[in-house]
Design brief:
The complex is a heterodimer. Chain A has helices spanning 2-13, 24-36, 107-114, 150-155, 162-167; strands spanning 21-23, 39-40, 53-58, 74-75, 78-84, 96-99, 120-123, 135-140, 143-149, 159-160, 169-171. By secondary structure, chain A is of the alpha/beta class. Chain A has a single domain, classed as Rossmann fold. In chain A, the strands form 2 sheets. In chain A, strands 4-5-3-6-7-8-9-11 form an 8-stranded mixed beta sheet, with helices on both faces. Chain A has a two-stranded antiparallel ribbon with strand order 2-10. Chain A is globular, with a radius of gyration of 16 Å. Chain A starts with a helix and ends in an 8-residue tail after the last strand. Helices cover 6% and strands 60% of the residues of chain B. Chain B contains 7 helices and 39 strands. In chain B, the strands form 5 sheets. Chain B has a 22-stranded antiparallel beta barrel. In chain B, a hairpin with a 3-residue loop joins strand 20 (366-383) and strand 21. Chain B is globular. Classes of the chains: A alpha/beta, B mainly beta. Strand 1 (21-23) of chain A pairs parallel with strand 1 (37-39) of chain B.
């Protein structure tokens, strides 16, 4: 209880958030971590209760040191691990794949390869979710927002919590079979 | 509040390494993350990659680390730009040739407001002593921008963009002192008026020492500028943005003049018919502008800009007051998912009032001129993400030459991500200025000789109200590649074909007997008398060998071959310029920067003065800067410019007329910046 109070006080002290300015990728790293809390992967994706949750980064690394903030973080008992995508032996070793802007030309081919695998695809390439990715970042009013393609998530067999969907701009209609 | 200011300062400097401390935002919820503002360093660069023209951006960080104290010197960082300091306060700046203090083929904008003077369609650079911490970036566009920006964007456009008031909250005090930059003091304060409105006010005073004459003496051409202004940014709704800004300046310059005299300066020595004099130049001016942007949807937005500016100037060459009113409208929308269309309308009205001086008369003394324009540009993705075609045209009506049209067609090919190839053909024009049309000026006098019947001769420059617009067809191509985030290279070739460029033609000499003693007048008449070509190659490379070290290289080659009607003389020349800026973070709070430049111009600069042709020796210049940031709100730096100029200095340029060559000297200064 006391710990909870401390957290609350810290959070209150840091309130003037709207005014604070951070570099884009520090923020995106925090988003990536937060997304994982609202995604339910199908059974069997994690071999053990404490196997790592792997976030893979595809393309030129734009994060720099921003990903170090994810070191040692836990999600539902799974330690977070960040890997470069091309170093992962098989794509299905990744639970989240972030596709960098440098992959603008290839990302559709990548998505085709990852389709139906239980992988959360995230990118800041423009119109990413419209093109079949699951979560796409976009910038509005100097803030980072995101859009979600529900059909793509369903195809990947991932369950996204309604809490997350509420905050996102939804693209694609789940009732319509998305090509 | 402190943290906020420091945060903005740091974040807006993409070159700065913040490895030591990455803020951990993972503790925030998604709702909270959605409220955080970001600065995206990549946004501008990303967009620039997709432009089918030669663009270079000088960032706020580049300006800071190059150790310069004014915008003019910062422009030396860009390839294709020729910056030459003429004397303490005067600069000759151009893009792709035709340089001179009265260079007139370049359009310069501050937040969309054109700062060229209608007197000679060039820029009084001495008045552009801007408050550097307010500048967000300078976009340098080489090649014609006529189809978007209109007349006078012949060889290029320089667009100086200042920061949003949101990014300049809190207080800032800057102080600079040195042997040449004697004192520059600036103050800025930014605050909020309610939730959606921010503002800033600033003031700056500067005093700079004169340069040196060729024999090493003080040229005496000191200059003083004071400047103040404000900017207000208001977002009345999520779809609307309004910016209102204004500023006022007052300049006081000592400038060297060479006056022609029609009697010997020293009566006993009948050879010297011109005298040097240090004169006071006073200039005041101001501007007020408003800009409104409305977003209908992600696919459609409009912008409306209105400004008024005035400039009053008093010097021996002319005494003139100018007022300008300008209104521009722009609409940007997407058509289907492959086309992006921009169209717009503009109107400008210019009033001026000249007073006769010993050197110049303008007839009529007062005039009102108007300019109307309309433009449309369509960008079509022929093959999405691979092949893009941009075609546009601007129609303009001006009071000197009537209707003019300026089309351009551009193609961008992206064979692979991060590899961009582009090519463009455009037509641009430059319309004559009031000075060229209506002014008559006395250039210089020659002593009596038997050829002139032992009479002194006055060389006079005569305006011509029958001048036609200068015309350019430009062919350009470029290739840029970004490799793995650490290395990028941008190359451009161009061939500019000019026609009907304004130049002087020798008229018939006549005897002027109205005044005693009588003298012979040799008139130089302005005509559309020149044509020819400029061609060249430009390269910009950016390399980060280590996170803490960045190197920027700019190389430009220009070959100019402009011929004059009825004049077989070869005026062609080659200009080679190299600039290397190294920015190195020694530690978290120490920066060491070095900037070397080499300039080699063969062929001489032609002047309309007794000096006739002046040769500029190749020169190498070195700037060093050491910056120390003991606290987030405090920065000290020591800088030296032109360090290789030991005893004397080096000559960079000479004004076309009325003055003599002076040399740029070594300058050492210290600087302090405190934010609160």
């Amino acid at each position: 209880m006391r710990r909870w109070l401390v957290c609350l006080i810290i959070a209150l002290l840091m309130r003037p958030l709207g005014a604070e300015v951070y570099s884009e990728y520090v923020l995106k790293a925090a988003y990536l971590y937060n997304f994982t809390k609202f995604v339910e992967w199908p059974q069997g994706v994690f071999p053990a209760a404490n196997s790592p949750l792997v976030i893979c980064i595809a393309g030129a690394d734009s994060f720099g040191d921003a990903l170090t903030t994810l070191d040692g973080k836990m999600v539902e008992g799974h330690p977070v691990e960040v890997r470069l995508f091309f170093l992962a032996a098989r794509p299905d070793q990744c639970h989240v794949v972030f596709i960098g802007r440098s992959e603008q030309g290839q990302f559709k081919a990548m998505l085709a390869k990852l389709a139906r695998l239980p992988i959360l695809t995230v990118s800041d390439i423009s119109n990413f979710s419209q093109a079949g990715g699951i979560i796409g970042f976009f910038e509005a009013e100097k803030r980072i927002r995101f859009s979600i393609n529900i059909a793509a998530a369903e195809q990947a067999n991932l369950k996204l919590s309604s809490q997350l969907l509420k905050l996102a701009v939804i693209v694609g209609d789940p009732r319509r079979a998305d090509p | 509040m402190l943290a906020l200011v420091a945060g903005v300062g740091l974040a807006s400097q993409p070159g700065r390494v913040q490895a030591a401390e990455v803020p951990d935002l993972t503790y925030f919820s998604i709702e909270e993350l959605m409220q955080i503002k970001v600065v995206s360093a990549t946004k501008v660069e990303q967009a620039l990659q997709d432009i089918a023209s030669a663009v270079f951006v000088i960032t706020a960080d580049d300006i800071r680390r190059s150790g310069v104290t004014n915008v003019m010197e910062a422009l030396r960082l860009a390839p294709g730009v020729e910056v030459a300091r003429v004397d303490s306060s005067r600069w000759a700046i151009t893009i792709r040739g035709f340089n001179g203090r009265f260079a007139n083929k370049l359009l310069v904008l501050i937040d969309g407001r054109s700062i060229y003077t209608s007197q000679f369609s060039g820029v009084y650079w001495e008045l552009q002593d801007l408050f550097l911490p307010d500048i967000e970036r300078i976009e340098v566009i080489r090649g014609p921008g006529g189809s978007l920006w209109g007349a006078n964007a012949v060889n290029g456009v320089i667009n100086i963009i200042t920061k949003n008031s949101e990014d300049t909250q809190g207080g800032l005090v800057t102080l600079t002192a040195g042997n040449e930059e004697r004192a520059i003091a600036g103050v800025r304060y930014g605050g909020k008026l309610g939730d959606s409105t921010q503002y800033r006010v600033y003031g700056q005073f500067s005093e700079r020492d004169g340069l040196a004459t060729l024999n090493g003496r003080d040229a005496g051409d000191d200059w003083r500028m004071s400047k103040g202004g404000f900017r207000l940014d208001w977002a009345p709704s999520a779809q609307d943005k309004i910016a209102v800004q204004g500023d006022r300046y007052e300049g006081n310059f000592d400038q060297n003049y060479v006056f022609s005299t029609l009697v010997p300066v020293i009566p006993a020595v009948n050879s010297e018919f011109s005298k040097k004099e240090l004169v006071k130049v006073n200039a005041t001016g101001g501007s007020l502008q408003a800009h409104w942007e409305h977003q209908y949807s992600a696919a459609s937005q409009i912008g409306l800009q209105v400004y008024y500016q005035y400039a009053d100037r008093e010097e021996p060459l002319y005494i003139a007051d100018t007022d300008t009113f300008d209104i521009d409208f722009q609409h940007n929308f997407t058509l289907g998912d492959r086309q992006n269309i921009v169209w717009g309308l503009g109107y400008r009205r210019n009033w001026d009032q000249f007073t006769d001086t010993v050197l110049a008369t303008v007839n009529p003394r007062s005039a009102t001129t108007e300019l109307f324009n309309a433009f449309v540009q369509d960008q079509v993705d022929l093959i999405p993400e691979q092949l893009r075609l941009t075609a546009g045209v601007k129609l303009e009506h001006n009071d000197f030459t009537g209707w003019e049209w300026q089309p351009s067609i551009r193609m961008l090919w992206t064979p692979r991500p991060n590899h961009h190839l582009w090519a463009a053909i455009s037509r641009a024009i430059r319309t004559p200025s009031r000075g060229e049309e209506n002014a008559q000026t006395s250039l210089y006098a020659l002593p009596p000789s038997p050829v002139t019947g032992n009479l002194p001769t006055l060389i006079a420059l005569l305006g011509n109200n029958q001048l036609d617009a200068e015309k350019l067809i430009a062919y350009e191509a470029g290739y840029r590649v970004q490799l793995a985030g650490q290395f990028s290279i941008d190359t451009t070739v161009f061939y500019n074909d000019y026609d009907q460029v304004v130049g002087t033609v020798l008229g018939t000499p006549f005897l002027e007997t109205g005044i005693v003693p009588p003298y012979l007048v040799l008139p130089l008449q302005l005509e559309n008398a020149q044509s020819g070509y400029d061609t060249g190659f430009e390269l910009a490379a950016d390399w980060r060998p280590m996170p803490a070290w960045r190197m920027q290289l700019a190389y430009s080659y220009l070959h100019s071959n402009i011929k004059r009607l009825d004049d077989p003389t070869d005026y062609s020349f080659n200009l080679n310029q190299i600039s290397v800026l190294s920015s190195w973070n020694l530690s978290n709070d120490l920066e060491l920067d070095a900037w070397g430049r080499y300039v080699n111009r063969d062929g001489s600069i032609l002047t309309l003065s007794p000096f006739n042709r002046v040769k500029i020796d190749p020169y190498f210049s070195l700037n060093l800067r050491l910056g120390w940031r003991p606290r987030k709100d405090l920065e000290f730096s020591l800088a030296g410019t032109n360090l290789l100029d030991g005893g004397g200095g080096h000559l960079e340029y000479v004004q076309e007329a009325y003055t003599f060559p002076v040399e740029v000297q070594r300058s050492l200064y210290g600087q302090m910046k405190w934010s609160f």
